[in-house]
Amino acid sequence: MWDRVKVIAKPTGDIISLAALKLRLRIDGDDEDDLLMSYLRGAVARIDGPDGIGYAMLEQTWRLTLDAFPHTITLPGAPIKRVAKISYLDASGVEQVLDAADYRVEVDMEPARVMPATGKSWPATLHAVGAVKIDYVLGEAEAANVPADLVDAACLLVGHRYQNREAVGENMSELPLSVEWLLKEYRRGAVA
What we know:
alpha+beta, 3-stranded antiparallel β-sheet
């Protein structure tokens, strides 16, 4: 299922401010601020989304692409906030957008599910690869609401990369075990 999911709208902010990150890492100077933010974005990319642990830290939109409507659509990822749009190719090959009153979304369970509303059924689709697309919103609108242990894991990754800037070397250390331990609870996806 994860190979059918992609991010179509990425988060616009950062999970932690530069000042707070530097405080955690005990870095005083300003010379490497851009590098630190680059490492932070890299750490978040490693953790976040369908290519990470399948968990969205900050608000973003994912698209699940299917070849047809199954009875119940299972939405990969967490925390899912809402379905933004369901589009499909009708039997004539014309793209249609399903009215939100025609389906029901259960985001209070995991994984979240989408099914036809009571008395409704899914419309007929063109028999084609990618005939159905579900766009859904995941993650927190405010960085303050991102789980603290995910922020901790990202900061540990930044600290590790900051201290170990080369791929190989004499004083290399492995990725802190605490990162894997912190991420374990949130892992929903394929990689990381």
